[in-house]
Amino acid sequence: MGGGLSIPEAGDRLSRTCSFEDSVRRLRYVSGSRGDALERLGILRVRDLMLHVPRRYLDFTHTVKIGLCEVGSTVTVVGTVDKVSQRQPRPRMNIVTVDIYDDTGALTATFFRQPWLYQQLHKGDTIALSGEVLFYKGFRQMKAPFIEQLEGSQDGSGYARILPVHPVGEGITASWMRRIVSAAIADAGDACDFLPADLVARHGFMSLGRALREIHYPATLDGARSARRRLAYDELLCLQLALLTRQRIDLGDRVPKRHTVAGMHVEALRRALPFSLTDEQEAAAIDILSDMAAPRVMNRLLLGDVGTGKTAVAAVALAAVADSGMQAAVMAPTSVLARQYAEKVGPLLDAAGIRWTLITGSTPARERADAAERIAAGEVDAVFGTTAILSDDISFRELSLVVIDEQHRFGVNQRALLRSKGAGADLLAMTATPIPRTLALSLYGDVDVSRITRRPVSGAGISTKVLTPENLDVAYEAIREAVARGHQAYVICPLIDDSDDGSELDDVVEGAVTQESLRAAVATRDELARSIFPDLSVELLNGRMSASEKDEVMMRFRAGEADVLVSTTVVEVGVDVPDATVMLVFNADRFGLATLHQLRGRVGRGNHPGTVFLASAAREGSTARTRLSALERTSDGFELAELDLKLRHEGEVLGYRQSGGVSLRISDLATDLDLVEAAHADARAIAGEDPDLGSDTHRPLAAEVRSRFSAYFDEVVRS
Q1: pLDDT at 263
Q2: What are phi and psi of 127, to 5 degrees?
Q3: What pLDDT does residue 426 have?
Q4: From CA 400, how far away is CA 234, in angstroms rounded?
């Protein structure tokens, strides 16, 4: 058609683009049962299938004969099945062993918890295996390799030179997944690109259509890597825009509170502090005060490891509220933490002439009514409390600052309800959970982040030691010696009782396997009280106890009425028991690094050094042992968080693996820092230029954001 526009071609591409929203069941080869299998994998639409990217590739341009495999190398081999066997050494542990051979040698592959392979594989089948080659008892082996059952010739020549391995599940095989994806790419893959052309050019990305073809059926592995980067950037940019748009919608019609940030109460509070703020604390305080003085609603997250002084920074913000003649509310997840805030910050506020009160679920009715009356009348500047302050009887004359400690412990509705008590109130969320920079940028893209990474006072210090189960006497003796000196100890277990499967835990490493049975807190408490420490007071704390029961146990422990506290991970972040100097963590390999780091922060908080024993049956050189050794080596929470992110999925690190939070399908936050930062900056620039994403340039992008993230946000992009 010469140099003119091809209207029919453009129309076809638009039609293919629109088909991304169609049900996956409209595709070729998707029968009723296969459609059900795809939906179990979260693949509901054609778009979901297009973004269901391979987890790895079998590179048949580099297959290696079994007899030529070097021990320690990661290779792809193709062979014939000689024998398939299975055994079950203990409950819930099924092991399938597959022996294969080619014309140069033999190899044994071992698969854990995949019993279906015993039924699926038969003598004479041709399979491809990809993994690390080991040598054991005179034979080459692979442990838990990737496996592909081939239907062509033994050498794999009947397949694409680079074979994608997509994640699959019950009811659909890898070969059927490839067939369905191939048909979808042929029918709808040449879609219009929603990304503005200037971004594609600036970052040197391939087009969307090419990226989809290359990610699923690459000509080269380099092409697959380039395609993944394009699609990872798309995912991160859409998430950033969704977060920013949600923030704009949430805060757009609120009139911000303008605070006085250099008044007499702030100066008095600074004088009352028993120390000068460090450079990092001062920078965080300046960030917060600048936001509070600005003509916009503050939405800031303060990240700081245990003992970095977040509380002192928050106290400065409370003083600015008092200078402004308004009110602040500080909400903590438990009564123990709320009281601790009052005990630590209250005297500073008193010295600065700032009026405050405390409200928890156990506050006596008459005292609560009096406090509520004074709050409503504006006679209280700052309120410390738990979710008890969300009740209808607590109303503020002018709430201008909401501070939420350990913000991830509260639901979205709880945070919104407190904020609704003061139209236009600023929000300061705080957490002692170290969060990697990429995770903070990607999942808190709508929040300004301040970080405090160094402790102003190192304290007496904490030493961490990894023990095998055979050496528990070392930990028991340390606990006994500590109690003899007037100190206390924690014992942490992964399970609550023997019937627990661990599904209630906030942070458990998925797939962690050791030969060690899992410890339950109830049984461990009984064993310690009966056999190990019969002369000591041993208490129990777990997540199935009511809030009042947990508070009562923690208050007794803080008061020194118990020597040893046996608990699950519900031991509260921030709870201060200065006399606790020893901790023993059973099955330590079952927990993420962030959780273990938080747990050990419970000891050594006073003038006496703390010792943490991590008990694990993990072998030397294993991934689990590498993680635990990192805790022996460093006390830097952010360094550990970065390592945790490299070893695990971002959903596991934050603890939302079981709660259905936003998860990233393609991007890898451990390695994609440049993409995260680029997407963050680009999203801010786009939102600043076109907040509604309503221009012709950004309208396709708005549709993509809406399509990807509408399930996670109430109203991401206005129609």
Answers
A1: 93
A2: -135, 155
A3: 92
A4: 37
